[in-house]
Amino acid sequence: MKRLWFAVLTLLTLAACGDTETKSSQYIFGTVVEITVRGVPKAEAEAAFAELAEGFRRMHADWHAWKPGGELMRVNAACGTGEPVRVSAFTLPLIADAKRYRTLSDGLFDAAIGRIVGAWGFHADEPEKGRAPPFEAIRALAAQHPSMDDVSIDGDTVTCANPAVSLDFGGFAKGAAVDWALATLRARGIADAVVSAGGNVGTSGRHGDRPWRIGIRDPKTWGVIAAVAAEGGESVYTSGNYERFREHEGVRYAHIIDPRTGWPVEHILSTTVIARDGSLADAASTALTVAGVEDWPRVAARMGVDQVLMLDDAGNLYASPKMAARLAFPEGPKPRVIVRDIP
Ligand code: AMP
Ligand code: MG
After folding, report:
1. Using CA positions, which residue lies closest to atom 1 of ligand 1?
2. Ligand 1, atom nearest to 258 Cα
3. CA dihedral (190, 191, 193, 197) positive or negative
4. Of 108, 141, 169, which closes a domain?
5. The domain containing residue 53 runs over which residues?
């Protein structure tokens, strides 16, 4: 009898674990991160959340582009003088990734443009208000061509050959953070999880017997323009010019900057990329926003992403064939999708 009870109890516990979702809300880079894990006893989930909170706290401190005291600020100070600087094993991989994304994106994603981002007033919790900075000042900064190609890595030492370089990981740090969180959960034996940071979503394992349904925002109505069913391991990243901007006399200046000109991107409302690597998806969604309506297929091919959705300010939707095939639309008239092949 005792044995039977034990067996029943075990089964009940397993059933409870199998279905249980445990959630946590955390905070990093000005964004709430929602973590949901499945099939894990609450205590195990809570222990994992504590480890994630500690990691996010360190990322927030060390990868911050403008709050003093962190490692990135120390690297940026050294870049200004050209002095070599030793970098921790925590931050070095991001510098290497930033160099790779610069090359892959043909210079459209360049994390070395921190000074330009700052000059536009985006190095503040609330973006600056008021008229655009003087055209001449921005042009002068862009003319110094700060680039990740000016940043060299030798062992654990980083040297910047251009004093205009200032690192800003804002375009891919959320992706790196979400990827790290999912890998950390997996290392703890938590296979089924979803981590969402400000509308960017990374998934791992299974969501019961159904996929995760991820909505892509319509920035005009704040509703959902389309949805995709994501399977475990996929990440869905959206870069939107509506997320952070400064506005003056009806003109909006977005926080996504074209490194070639130093000027904010115009006419693209958002770009969504689905890929298995969240950091790459994050960088690519920013890079393709810079590339714009004509050039995005070329840059997507270079970056190795094949699932792209772009919305422009005329209301046109552009998609790669693989993305177009999996879009689901809310009820009502279906929007026309302009499908473009990736070369
Ligand atoms: P996201 O929301 O991922 O598109 O990231 C936007 C952030 O990336 C901005 O707030 C800047 O910190 C940074 N950023 C802006 N333009 C670029 C660019 N062309 N390349 C790399 N990072 C950028
Ligand atoms: Mg991005």
Report:
1. 171
2. 19
3. positive
4. 169
5. 7-59+172-339
